[in-house]
Amino acid sequence: MLKGFDKETQPLTEYEEKELLPVILAGLKAKTGKENAVTNRTIVMRLTIAGYKIDEARCRKIINHIRTTDALPGLIATSGGYFLATTEAELMDYEESLLGRENAIKEVRLAIARQRRILYGDAQKPKEGTLF
């Protein structure tokens, strides 16, 4: 779980694993190619209309589970939604995009750690412009 996002990042519930996962997997299997992409919002809306209980955050968690367990190889996402890649080049481009996002998050984390040390790291250090 991620701190501050406990509900959104908790492991899949039995309901999500037994009821929602198979339905979402079946739906995504039909989304081959970018032209057939489906958004998270559409998935949630259609599941809700069909009587399932799900929100967008938990849908993302289920899709994360699908990806990290290799349940549906080649599942990628763009601003247009989720779809199954049709070429290795699409997967490589997506992998490169994820690496860029990973590096950007790392840069922010390192900057915050540096700023924390600047602000709170040495309580004995006098403030600039003072002798004591």
Q: Summarize the helix and strand pattern as letters.
A: HHHHEEH
Distance between the termini: 44 Å
**Over all CA atoms, what is the radius of gyration?**
21 Å
| Unreliable parts | none
Helix content: 55-70%
Main β-sheet description: 2 strands, antiparallel
The share of residues in extended strands comes to 5-15%
Instruction: Provide a count of the helices.
Output: 5
Total number of strands: 2
In the sheet with the most strands, the strands line up as 1-2
Mean pLDDT: 91
- Class of secondary structure makeup: mainly alpha
Describe the global form.
Answer: extended
Write up what this structure looks like.
By secondary structure, the chain is mostly helical. It has 5 helices and 2 strands. Strand 1 and strand 2 (81-84) form a beta hairpin. The chain starts with 5 loop residues before the first helix and ends in a 12-residue tail after the last helix.
